[in-house]
Protein backbone atom coordinates (compact mmCIF):
# COMPACT_ATOMS: atom_id res chain seq x y z
CA UNK A 1 0.00 0.00 0.00
CA UNK A 2 3.00 2.29 0.42
CA UNK A 3 4.53 4.00 -2.58
CA UNK A 4 8.11 2.70 -2.68
CA UNK A 5 9.67 5.75 -4.34
CA UNK A 6 7.73 8.51 -2.62
CA UNK A 7 7.19 6.97 0.80
CA UNK A 8 9.47 4.06 1.66
CA UNK A 9 12.71 5.18 0.01
CA UNK A 10 12.78 8.61 1.74
CA UNK A 11 12.16 6.93 5.11
CA UNK A 12 14.99 4.44 4.60
CA UNK A 13 17.27 7.27 3.47
CA UNK A 14 16.33 9.24 6.61
CA UNK A 15 17.35 6.24 8.73
CA UNK A 16 20.70 6.12 6.95
CA UNK A 17 21.25 9.88 7.45
CA UNK A 18 20.62 9.42 11.16
CA UNK A 19 23.32 6.74 11.29
CA UNK A 20 21.19 3.62 11.50
CA UNK A 21 23.15 0.64 10.12
CA UNK A 22 21.58 -1.38 7.27
CA UNK A 23 21.02 -4.39 9.53
CA UNK A 24 19.18 -2.19 12.02
CA UNK A 25 17.03 -0.69 9.28
CA UNK A 26 15.99 -4.18 8.20
CA UNK A 27 15.21 -5.19 11.76
CA UNK A 28 13.24 -1.98 12.39
CA UNK A 29 11.12 -2.60 9.30
CA UNK A 30 10.49 -6.11 10.59
CA UNK A 31 9.43 -5.08 14.11
CA UNK A 32 7.56 -1.90 13.08
CA UNK A 33 6.71 -1.87 9.38
CA UNK A 34 4.30 1.01 9.91
CA UNK A 35 7.31 3.29 10.30
CA UNK A 36 7.52 3.54 6.49
CA UNK A 37 4.28 5.53 6.56
CA UNK A 38 5.52 8.03 9.12
CA UNK A 39 6.29 11.63 8.19
CA UNK A 40 10.02 12.34 7.91
CA UNK A 41 9.63 15.13 10.47
CA UNK A 42 8.31 12.67 13.08
CA UNK A 43 11.18 10.27 12.37
CA UNK A 44 13.69 13.08 12.88
CA UNK A 45 11.94 14.08 16.13
CA UNK A 46 12.10 10.51 17.43
CA UNK A 47 15.84 10.33 16.70
CA UNK A 48 16.33 13.68 18.44
CA UNK A 49 14.24 12.67 21.45
CA UNK A 50 16.26 9.48 21.90
CA UNK A 51 19.51 11.38 21.50
CA UNK A 52 18.37 13.75 24.26
CA UNK A 53 17.78 10.70 26.46
CA UNK A 54 21.37 9.63 25.82
CA UNK A 55 20.61 6.74 23.49
CA UNK A 56 22.83 5.87 20.56
CA UNK A 57 21.50 4.22 17.40
CA UNK A 58 23.96 1.36 17.90
CA UNK A 59 22.58 0.38 21.34
CA UNK A 60 20.79 -2.95 21.60
CA UNK A 61 17.41 -1.51 22.60
CA UNK A 62 17.53 1.52 20.33
CA UNK A 63 15.15 0.08 17.73
CA UNK A 64 12.56 -0.79 20.37
CA UNK A 65 12.96 2.65 21.94
CA UNK A 66 12.56 4.21 18.49
CA UNK A 67 9.38 2.19 17.94
CA UNK A 68 8.00 3.41 21.27
CA UNK A 69 8.93 7.04 20.54
CA UNK A 70 7.23 6.84 17.16
CA UNK A 71 4.14 5.28 18.73
CA UNK A 72 3.69 7.89 21.47
CA UNK A 73 2.78 11.52 21.07
CA UNK A 74 4.98 13.86 23.11
CA UNK A 75 2.06 14.71 25.37
CA UNK A 76 1.38 11.02 26.03
CA UNK A 77 5.07 10.53 26.85
CA UNK A 78 4.92 13.43 29.31
CA UNK A 79 1.76 12.08 30.97
CA UNK A 80 3.30 8.63 31.43
CA UNK A 81 6.49 10.10 32.87
CA UNK A 82 4.37 12.23 35.24
CA UNK A 83 2.34 9.15 36.19
CA UNK A 84 5.44 7.22 37.21
CA UNK A 85 6.71 10.29 39.05
CA UNK A 86 3.41 10.46 40.95
CA UNK A 87 4.31 7.02 42.33
CA UNK A 88 7.69 8.32 43.49
CA UNK A 89 9.89 7.29 40.56
CA UNK A 90 12.45 9.91 39.58
CA UNK A 91 12.80 10.85 35.93
CA UNK A 92 16.40 9.54 35.89
CA UNK A 93 15.33 6.13 37.21
CA UNK A 94 12.45 6.00 34.71
CA UNK A 95 14.74 6.88 31.79
CA UNK A 96 17.21 4.20 32.87
CA UNK A 97 14.35 1.66 32.99
CA UNK A 98 13.08 2.85 29.60
CA UNK A 99 16.52 2.34 28.06
CA UNK A 100 16.51 -1.21 29.42
CA UNK A 101 12.90 -2.04 28.48
CA UNK A 102 11.40 0.61 26.17
CA UNK A 103 8.08 -1.18 25.76
CA UNK A 104 7.24 -0.46 29.39
CA UNK A 105 5.82 2.88 28.20
CA UNK A 106 3.52 1.32 25.61
CA UNK A 107 1.06 0.23 28.29
CA UNK A 108 -1.94 2.46 28.78
CA UNK A 109 -1.97 4.79 31.75
CA UNK A 110 -4.71 2.68 33.35
CA UNK A 111 -2.65 -0.50 32.89
CA UNK A 112 0.39 1.19 34.42
CA UNK A 113 -1.70 2.24 37.45
CA UNK A 114 -3.06 -1.30 37.89
CA UNK A 115 0.43 -2.83 37.70
CA UNK A 116 1.95 -0.36 40.13
CA UNK A 117 -0.93 -0.78 42.59
CA UNK A 118 -0.63 -4.57 42.38
CA UNK A 119 3.09 -4.48 43.13
CA UNK A 120 2.71 -1.94 45.93
CA UNK A 121 -0.58 -2.96 47.55
CA UNK A 122 -0.83 -6.70 46.93
CA UNK A 123 2.80 -7.77 46.84
CA UNK A 124 3.99 -5.02 49.20
CA UNK A 125 6.94 -4.23 46.96
CA UNK A 126 8.56 -0.84 46.76
CA UNK A 127 8.27 0.53 43.22
CA UNK A 128 11.96 1.49 43.26
CA UNK A 129 12.76 -2.24 43.45
CA UNK A 130 10.22 -3.20 40.80
CA UNK A 131 11.45 -0.65 38.29
CA UNK A 132 14.95 -2.12 38.51
CA UNK A 133 13.44 -5.01 36.53
CA UNK A 134 11.36 -3.03 34.02
CA UNK A 135 10.35 -6.14 32.06
CA UNK A 136 7.67 -6.79 34.70
CA UNK A 137 6.13 -3.44 33.77
CA UNK A 138 6.00 -4.46 30.10
CA UNK A 139 4.15 -7.73 30.42
CA UNK A 140 0.47 -8.34 31.02
CA UNK A 141 -0.57 -8.20 34.65
CA UNK A 142 -3.46 -10.62 34.13
CA UNK A 143 -1.75 -13.09 31.78
CA UNK A 144 1.78 -13.10 33.12
CA UNK A 145 2.39 -11.51 36.52
CA UNK A 146 -0.66 -12.69 38.49
CA UNK A 147 -0.44 -16.35 37.35
CA UNK A 148 3.23 -16.51 38.32
CA UNK A 149 2.47 -14.94 41.69
CA UNK A 150 -0.29 -17.52 42.23
CA UNK A 151 2.10 -20.39 41.50
CA UNK A 152 4.74 -18.87 43.77
CA UNK A 153 2.17 -18.49 46.54
CA UNK A 154 1.25 -22.19 46.30
CA UNK A 155 4.90 -23.21 46.32
CA UNK A 156 5.56 -21.06 49.40
CA UNK A 157 2.54 -22.51 51.23
CA UNK A 158 3.79 -26.04 50.51
CA UNK A 159 7.30 -25.13 51.65
CA UNK A 160 8.84 -25.69 48.22
CA UNK A 161 10.06 -22.15 47.65
TrEMBL record:
Q: Which InterPro entries match?
A: MTERF (IPR003690), MTERF_sf (IPR038538)
Family, according to the entry, reads as follows:
Belongs to the mTERF family.
Q: Which UniProt keywords apply?
A: Transcription, Transcription regulation, Transcription termination, Transit peptide
Q: Name one GO biological process term.
A: DNA-templated transcription termination
Q: Which GO terms describe its molecular function?
A: nucleic acid binding
Q: Which domain of life is it from?
A: Eukaryota
What name goes with this protein?
Answer: Uncharacterized protein
In its UniProt entry, the species of origin is given as: Eleusine coracana subsp. coracana
Task: Answer yes or no on keyword Zinc.
Answer: no
Q: Name one Pfam family in it.
A: mTERF
